[in-house]
Amino acid sequence: MNVNHLYSLFRKELPTFQFFVMDVGGRDGLHNRWDGFKDFAQFILVEPDPVEAKRLQSIGGKNLQIVDKALWSKPCEIKINITSSPGCSSVLNPDMNFIGLFQDPERFKIVKQYDIPATTINDFVKQKNLKVNFLKIDTQGSELEILKGASELKGQILGIEAEVEFAKIYKDQPTFRDIDSYVSETFDLSLYDLRRTYWKRSIAGHQGFPKGQMIFGDALYLMSPETMLKKFTERESLLTAVFNGIFIGMTYGYFD
Asked: What pairs with residue 157 in β-bridges?
């Protein structure tokens, strides 16, 4: 079924219904999985790198808001490290002793640093009168701190996609088990999928199998239908959760 038609049906049943997606670490823009939702969904793209944020603002998009701030667990000023490969940039310092064991470590070399203001997701959505139904975070090691700043949105956030590390690429960063525990306990979400990425040690070159060591991945957390039925007892809140859950499930291929 066409998502625009489905949205119209949802609005007839629940006139106040809206769908909000926040993408934190939105370098290169929204994933094309959201293309079918651009006519009605509200997208918030957070990119702290001032150069990339300016580029994204110049492109624009329907129902798309670009936020050139950092997010953290509390309001503060933080330093962002821009690396030679911009996708490796982080507010944390790369652990070059560990990274140097693997192929192409030069991409983590810090080439610029910016001091930028940081706020929390809790404060941001209050100030802008927004909601967050689905949250995607890819911030190279600072995902847990950002999630801690969204704790007041329990019950509103029905899905999270977060980059998680199984090895510490950045100094003092949390790993998968820290994020997995926090998300399940704080947001009542269950782990549905885990896409894993492997690195090969530089000493191996191109010999043998391509896998190497499991370093990081993308974890997908969703609120199960059973949890929704237990959690939301009023008609409007249950319908809102179910409708948002349907959209999130359709986007990631979960129709059950």
From this structure: 154
Question: Please, what is the end-to-end C-alpha distance for the chain in angstroms?
Answer: 15
Overall pTM > 0.90? yes
13 CB burial (10 A radius; 0-12, 13-18, 19+): exposed
């349907």: which residue's tokens? Answer: 246
- Spell out the residues 6+ positions from residue 16 whose beta carbon is closer than 8 angstroms to its own: 236, 240
Reported as half-sphere exposure (CB side, CA atoms, 13 A), residue 11 has a value of 10
**pLDDT at position 220 over 70:** yes
| Strands (DSSP E) found in 166-226 | 190-199, 213-222
The CATH number corresponding to 3-73+121-252 among 3.20.20.210, 3.40.50.720, 3.40.50.150, 3.30.950.10 equals 3.40.50.150
Q: Can you read off the two tokens belonging to residue 6?
A: 């489905």
Q: How far is CA 190 from CA 16, 86, 141, 161, in A?
A: 27, 31, 21, 11
Rg (CA), the chain: 19
- Please enumerate in sequence order all residues whose Cβ is within 8 A of that of 233, keeping only pairs 6 or more positions apart, or say none: none
pLDDT one-digit tens code per residue, 174-209: 999 999 999 999 999 999 999 999 999 988 766 667
